[in-house]
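Weekly structure sync, notes
Attendees: PL (lead), two postdocs, one rotation student
Agenda item 3: pending single-chain targets
PL asked that the sequence for the first pending target be pasted directly into the notes so everyone works from the same version. It is reproduced below exactly as submitted, 659 residues in total.
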Amino acid sequence: MKTIRFCKMMVLLVFLCMGSTRVAAARPHTFEAGQGQFLLDGKPFVIKAAEIHYARIPSQYWEHRIRMCKALGMNTICAYVFWNFHEQRPGEFDFTGDRDLARFVGLCKKHGMWVILRPGPYACAEWEMGGLPWWLLRNRNVHLRSQDPDFIGPAVRFQREIERQLRPYRLENGGNIILLQVENEFGSYGIDKPYLSALRDSLRSIGWDKIQMFQCDWSSNFENNALPDLMWTLNFGTNADVLKQFRRLKELRPDMPLMCSEYWSGWFDGWGQPHQQRSWEPMVKGIATMLENNISFSLYMTHGGTSFGPWAGANNKGFAPDCTSYDYDAPVDEQGSATEKYYRLRELLQQYSDTKLPAVPKPLPVISLPEMTFSEFAPLMREENLPQALASVEIQPMEQFGQGYGSMVYSTTLPAAGEGSLLRITDMCDYARVYIDGTLVGQLYRGNGYETTLRLPAVKQGQHLDIFIEAMGRINYSKLIHDPKGITERVELFTTSAEGHRLTYDLRNWQVRLLPADYEFVSSRHYGNSLNSQLNKEGYYRTTFRLRKTGDTWLDLSTWGKGLVWVNGHCLGRFWQIGPQQTLFLPGCWLKKGENEIVIMDIVGPEKPVTSGLAKPVIDNLRRDLLPRDAVKDVSPKTAVRPKAAPATEGNDAAPGAK
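Predicted structure, written out during the meeting:
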């Protein structure tokens, strides 16, 4: 009897606990744009939002970063949802681990933070292709950011999955998502109200019908795409005249609450460009002006983080790839520590808080690592380290072979050509190293103003041409986001015959090898133990080290050339000797006590195959003298004869997946 009575009591307790949880979770909230102010549960509310991107932070650190934002004085977290981060293959969604969006939003709720959700489908954010997935480009005729069914169909499918993941966090379900953004800064892309209307309608139809929606743009272009039933917000930087920015908006919508949806705290870094820094004073002054005038804001970025793996994008100014570090000179630095900007802004925000702000979380541990020499090496271009070749008569970009990120090698044979002949690669994206019979003869970089031509040594009929191409991140801004990788047009050889005729060969019949940017691939190369004869050689380098304690650190890559780094299977991102970034952030949560592994893919070759873990980053050391200089300004001869047949190699007639 006692046992039965005990069991009944336990069942009753379980039901009571479940019931109390349901009641707490089901308490709905309301958020709306009232007369000149936001209303949260019917009461005036000023949004003080901190922009952070969960995709740029290891999931183990999400809670720490959210607490840093709350201690700063913020009441809201603003976050993009990068489409390509969650759907790397069509219809295959990943919302686990570092991609667990619901867990991130739940942690915001746990710490009393509201959420502004920015689900795209386009984001920008110096992120690969602005958040759009690479596989959209397999259709060469797709119209991105439009009502093209090949774009908006997959986009709505992804938006539907986001809603499914976040349904418990909608306000009417007791959640904490107060605002939903429709698209992102479309005015810098074009004018297409029907597309934006269709996207708005689809969001409402899949479950976001009760949330306050908004669209953001600049003060100079927001009218071009403004939909009358959405809230309008503006984006601008810390040196802007705040009240002037809102002047036209107030004329058009005098009763609408005002908000700066991106107030830029700093700026991002690009390879080969000076490190960007911004003073704290105009940032704090601008936010003070907004608070004095009841203007809500989101600080972009409050914490930038890191574009791990292949996720750093590229600017559109003649192709300018972004650095791996997304420190952004933000108040919370890349490692999660408070800066002077943080404390200056916290002083201001304390004045606008009814309660004392929480204590600033303690900094996460930082460690140093002694110098390590890499004892294992796998040559990059050796046959046993290259995957099986795919055949393609015509040149094709990377996407047509089913690969989104990483590198590839195009191979064919050459006709006879005299010394000084020209090899032209159009359109080459993004960094090429050219070999003849295994010997490097030159390199090209798309960022050098689209230099596409190399002068060759004399070659004999049948010599082997290899073109190694590294993809460095798709352009994330403007119409140029349609940015396929590899070689997208043709490879031509310009030479002169023995009779003095100028000849142009369209090189065809390619063998293509794909080198994906993932740990499974690089770890399975054929490594040897002897490194002495391989110094300054392109390839894969591997070593191990042991730890008694873990902590954050920065891997020193200053003696290395160009490539990617993996630690314990996690890709830290790209490095390049030209700087300004010379270190890569290594989160301590990715290290372990005991043995750890580092793999470095260096496509240029190191000056010295060593690294160490530093206690501070090096992100301000520019070495532009190391940029590729092999390209020549020569263009194709204007009176060239094209031979009827180009040199041939054995292979099939078409590439897999090519139209």
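Discussion points:
- Residues 48 and 74 are 5 Å apart (CA to CA).
- Residues 1-25, 634-640, 644-659 have pLDDT under 50 and may be disordered.
Action: rotation student to compare against the earlier draft before next sync.
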